[in-house]
Write a structure and sequence with these properties.
Strand order of the largest sheet: 3-2-1-4-5
Number of domains: 2
Order of helices and strands: HHHHHHEEEHEHHEHHH
Number of helices: 12
Shape: elongated
CATH class of the largest domain: Alpha Beta
CATH superfamily of the largest domain: Ribonuclease H-like superfamily/Ribonuclease H
Helix content: 40-55%
CATH topology of the largest domain: Nucleotidyltransferase, domain 5
Distance between the termini: 98 Å
Oligomer: single chain
Strand content: 5-15%
Mean pLDDT: 90
Largest sheet: 5 strands, mixed
Low-confidence stretches: none
Structural class: alpha/beta
Length: 271
């Protein structure tokens, strides 16, 4: 009748009764584990327990230790993560931004929408790294920086030059890919200080940043950088090309004007 009420089988009841009358087979091992566990004030997991047992020349399989700890509810105290450290870590994580530009390359207001990127330039069995910011409306290179390394100051110095060259960048937009430099908190904070909007290409979509990719293509086709022997020689060559590109190189899509001439042309139509 009791088995029916408890909804257990008779065979199951008698099996339980038989085992309950037998001596506990894990009891001696439990005492060994419990002694070490208590010594660690409940902070040691199965790995540490096994190592401490081995120091006392007691060999016990780690699976058995796990089973005993579970069976006798020897629950390890887990150190809680500091919530303030978590918040700080989150605030310093690299961030991506939505593609606000969305390939709207047909801009008509100068110095409002910019694109930026980094390319490498090989010379004399070494590499130099070129960071460029380009005005999408006029095609003008408004800031650039050449360095022997890929540290954060490569892009930060480029932004500083942009800030020094253009009086007001407030509410302007700067578009980039999702590279390490542009998702870095230092860069993000710098753009925020300038009160600019940050836009990013979708992952794996270089066409989203086509104007700057096109510029790099022209530069590498037209500059004889491979014959440079020193960094200083390469810097002078790049500087010379930037001057030529902005002031002398006429472009069909800019009504056959140079970027600087086209910028002045557009500004003449603004109130």
């Amino acid at each position: 009748m009791l088995c029916a009420i408890a909804e257990v089988s008779k065979s199951g009841y008698y099996k339980w009764l038989k085992h309950s009358e037998e001596p506990e087979k894990d009891h001696d091992d439990y005492l060994l584990v419990k002694k070490v566990f208590d010594k660690g004030k409940g902070k040691w997991g199965f790995r540490t327990v096994q190592m401490k047992l081995s120091e006392e020349e007691i060999t016990m399989n780690h699976k058995k230790i796990i089973r005993i700890m579970r069976k006798y509810h020897l629950i390890t105290k887990i150190r809680r993560k500091n919530p303030y450290k978590i918040i700080m870590k989150k605030s310093l994580e690299h961030r991506t931004f939505e593609n606000k530009l969305d390939r709207k390359f047909d801009q008509s207001i100068p110095r409002k929408v910019f694109c930026t990127d980094i390319t490498y330039i090989p010379f004399n069995y070494r590499f130099a790294y070129l960071s460029v910011i380009k005005d999408i409306a006029t095609g003008e290179v408004v800031s650039w920086n050449l360095a022997k390394h890929l540290e954060m100051d490569l892009v930060i110095n480029t932004i500083d030059k942009l800030e020094n060259g253009i009086p007001s960048l407030k509410e302007g937009m700067i578009h980039s890919d999702q590279g390490f430099h542009y998702t870095n908190p230092i860069y993000i904070e710098k753009i925020r200080e300038l009160k600019m909007l940050q836009s990013m290409s979708r992952k794996g979509n270089c066409i989203d940043n086509a104007p700057i990719e096109s510029f790099f293509g022209h530069l590498k086709d037209e500059v004889d950088y491979k014959h440079c022997r020193t960094f200083e020689e390469l810097y002078f060559l790049i500087e010379e090309y930037m001057r030529y590109y902005n002031n002398q190189r006429q472009q069909w899509e800019l009504k056959k004007m140079t970027p600087v001439d086209y910028r002045n042309h557009l500004l003449s139509y603004l109130p």
